[in-house]
Each structure stands twice: as C-alpha cells, then as structure tokens.
Design brief:
- The protein is mostly beta strands.
- It has one domain: monomeric porin ompg (Porin).
- It has 1 helix and 12 strands; from the N terminus they run H-E-E-E-E-E-E-E-E-E-E-E-E.
- It has one helix at residues 5-8, and strands at 40-49, 63-71, 79-90, 98-106, 117-126, 140-151, 157-164, 180-189, 194-201, 209-219, 222-231, 240-248.
- The two termini are 16 Å apart.
Amino acid sequence: MKKLFAAFAAIGLLSAGIAHATPSTTLWIPSTDIQAFGVVHFGADSYNCVIKEPTAAGTTGNTIDYGLTVGVVPNDDKFGVEVGIDYRDATGNSKNPWYLNVKAGIKEGAFGDMMPAIAVGGFDFGTKSSTTSTTNFRTDNNILYGLAAKAFGAAGRFSIGYFSGNDKVLVDDTGKADNTGILASWDKTINDKWWAAIDYQGGKSGYGALSFGVAYTVSANSSFIFAYNIYNNDKLHDPTIEFNYDVNF
C-alpha cells in the first residue's frame, strides 16, 4: 500500500494498507489523510486467504504488498499531495507487480470549523494494459475516486465517497463490468495506543469488500494493523486476514 510520484515524473498520519496499490487508507479504501511534506511512509501488507485450498472460481490466494508513499507539498497546513509506488505479488503469479498512485486534498477545518476534509486521487495505475494468460493479467485498474470526511468528537470520523475504475478490468464473476461504487468508512482513535475502523467499497468486482480492523501503535512513527476482509463477491475471493506494518521516516 504506498507511494512515490516524484520519482515517476522522470518516467512519465500512519494508515493501513490494502491489497491493491494504495494511497493512505482507512483499512481497505483510501482515506482523506495525506502524508506530510517530506515524510516517507513504508507499508508491508500481507493478505492471507482464510481457506487454504480455495475452490471458488477466480479466487486468489495470499497476497503481499510493499509500498512507499511520500508527501510532496511544502507548507502543507491546509493542502496536501502524496504520491507513491507499490510492489504487489499474489501467490507468486504477478509478472507485472508495480503500481502507482497519487492523492491531493484539503484538510478538515482548513477554511472553517465545519469544513470536512476532501480528497481526490487515483490508485492501481498498473504497467500492463493487455493480457495473454491467467498469470500475466493486465494491471491497468486505473481507479479514480473522491472522498469527504468529518470527525464528530467521541463518535469518531465518518467518510463517504465514490470510485470509478477501468471497466475492462473491474468485472464481476461473469465478466460483466462492475467498475463503480460507493466508498464509506468509520474510524476512531480509542487511546494513545489503539485505533479501530470499519470500511466498505461497493461493487461485485474483486475490489468490493467490507473490512473490520484495529491498529496498535508501537512507537511515534510505527504501528501494526490487524483486519478481516469480507469480499462482496465470494465467487471471486474468499475472506482474508490482513496483517500490516506501517512506519514513517
């Protein structure tokens, strides 16, 4: 889950990671959080299939994702931009494992106490736009999204948004395009060590999922995350248990 757009110009808060190449996220979906200027965020994410021998058609097994994200806007008290790169491998079958992402946003309260945080961005910009086999699949998922989020004191923070991706890649188990949907989340800091969240991405493609998770802060710049992901289309993916380690430099 995570990023480095500045490096890609030449070639053309701690948060959880997700199974696809990710900007800063809640658990599975993007969040309105943006890495501070000059902060490099590293995430190591593991998604472990609950069923050891998946039988559902199209089901993938375990997935790993290593990502870097960096904040690239100085004097970012109101605005922010982060960019990044991920290396993702699904059970050793990913022949084109590199993905890019970018996010820009306005911070909550930047122009008034009632103003929500707003973010727009894109992720899973892969490097392969055609496919010749099941193990050399196309990766140009090209998901664009918009989000708004507002904290309500002890009730926590609520986010709502919408996404749209490549209709040639985001399909259901019958091959029919299912490339748009809602994004929604709740998250709350419990104390100085624990954080909890629930999030949801709509649709019947492999991206649609409901996730529950908690994070434990190890130090001022690192945390562990444990989550459980239930996919909207069980014909494409069995549930996964997610373990993440996130650190800022």
